[in-house]
Design brief:
2 domains; GMP Synthetase, Chain A, domain 3; Phenylacetate-coenzyme A ligase; 8-stranded mixed β-sheet; alpha/beta; 4-stranded antiparallel β-sheet; about 30% helix; about 425 residues; Rossmann fold
Length: about 425
């Protein structure tokens, strides 16, 4: 069996027809909420004649969610909701998403489709190394794995030696893990003198933070697995929005559940296929808290052409960063992913790095702290200076400025149990 659900087999024409029906229904539902009752005033579902008419609808932002926290977006009585997830923001109101029982079932089905698409089957043992709680990554993928019928281990984040013991004792074959933690865990394997390739691992599901293809390939080489990129955000459910298929050539968005657009992040005009812009998402199947044209701030592009897997659901490229993550230094626009791309392609570089922005007099400067593998971190200063210059030169070729490169010992930079902190701004 190649497909888990009939929706995966829809043609482009069938997808668009279904999207229009569901978009009209989503608008009708949304207008029952306090926020959209005002926001969509004067707009009716019957005004939408084709899926392109989504442009008639206003955008929704994270600021809207915060301003109308906690219940301003609900379309059914509070008693109908059974779950809440929220962002981990430390300033101001968080963004909270509430789910009805039907919403949770839809989410589990979408996640099960993602897992099945990359080759996960009922016979697999699945270890979830993602954080649980208000963060969507833990429970979202957990329920998808159980829906598929896998033996599911809710290991949670951190406690690396316990993670390794579970991997070994239960012959785990599939793992969900944040890319930066996968790289860190490899150093724990190394310290224990254990080769992860000797385990039963075959599939890694990686996501939750932007990462480059160089990082993915490094993870695959270390563990002897196929690592599949995924995309999700809490406002759209969490994981399960888009996933790579077996061909690893872009992430299929489940268009029966979500309507995706790519727009210019400045003037918000629609961009043609293939151009990088901000991803805009509309929920088509959420019952209790639909969102219309939500500005994700994530930068990507639609990939042209058909996928050999046979699915017609549109593919997006990996997330290259966030519209608000761009660093402007000496008049040059820089994204952290550009730095990672360079570093992870170099054999001398270890598993971690840190970008620091600071002032030197009145000038903004960038310092990149880079962990170096033990075999390359030698006492000969001439060798280290040459490596330092090599990294700086490679970075300049990619980001057009020369940062100050600081080489540090392997496994010496701070580690995070959750999403990696890659940029620290010291300028203020």
């Amino acid at each position: 069996m190649k497909f888990l659900h009939l929706e995966e087999q829809l043609s482009r024409e069938e997808i668009k027809k279904l999207q229009l029906v569901r978009l009209k229904s989503a608008v009708a539902r949304a207008k029952k909420s306090p926020f959209y009752a005002k926001k969509l005033k004067g707009i009716e579902p019957e005004d939408l004649k084709s899926i392109e008419d989504v442009k008639l609808l206003p955008f929704t932002t994270k600021e809207d969610l915060r301003e109308h926290y906690p219940y301003g977006f609900l379309t059914v009585p509070k008693s109908e909701f059974v779950r809440l997830h929220a962002s981990s923001g430390t300033t101001g109101s968080p963004t909270a998403i509430l789910y009805t029982e039907n919403d949770l079932n839809t989410w589990a089905d979408l996640m099960a489709r993602c897992l099945f698409m990359v080759g996960v089957r009922k016979e697999d043992v699945f270890q979830n190394m993602s954080g649980y709680g208000l963060f969507t990554g833990g429970l979202g993928i957990h329920y998808g794995a159980e829906r598929l019928g896998c033996l599911t281990i809710p290991a949670g984040a951190g406690n690396s030696k316990r993670q390794i013991k579970l991997l070994k004792d239960f012959a785990v074959s599939v793992v969900h893990i944040i890319p930066s933690y996968a790289l860190h865990l490899s150093t724990v394997f190394e310290g224990l003198g254990i080769n992860p390739k000797d385990f039963n691992l075959r599939i890694f599901l990686i996501g939750a933070e932007p990462h480059t293809d160089e990082t993915r390939r490094r993870i695959e080489e270390i563990y002897g697995v196929k690592a599949f990129n995924s995309y999700g955000l809490s406002e759209m459910n969490g994981p399960g929005v888009a996933f790579e298929c077996e061909y690893q050539n872009g992430m299929h968005i489940w268009e029966d559940a979500f309507l995706a657009e790519i727009v210019d992040p400045v003037d918000l005009t629609t961009l043609p296929e293939g151009e990088v812009g901000e991803l805009i998402m509309t929920t088509l199947a959420r019952e209790g808290m639909p969102l219309i044209r939500y500005r994700t701030k994530d930068l990507t592009r639609f990939l042209p052409g058909e996928c050999p897997c046979g699915r017609s659901h549109v593919r997006i490229d990996r997330i290259t960063g966030r519209a608000d993550d761009m660093i402007i230094l000496k008049g040059v626009n820089i994204y952290p992913m550009q730095v990672e791309k360079v570093l992870m392609s170099m054999k001398e570089v270890g598993q971690n790095y840190l970008i620091e922005l600071y002032k030197e007099g009145h000038l903004d400067q960038m310092r990149v702290k880079v962990e170096i593998k033990d075999e390359y971190f030698v006492e000969d200063m001439r060798v280290l200076k040459a490596l330092q210059s090599k990294i700086a030169k490679n970075l300049r070729e990619e980001i057009l400025i020369t940062p100050r490169v600081e080489l540090v010992e392997h496994n010496s930079l701070p580690k995070s149990q959750g999403k990696a902190i890659r940029v620290i701004d010291l300028r203020n």
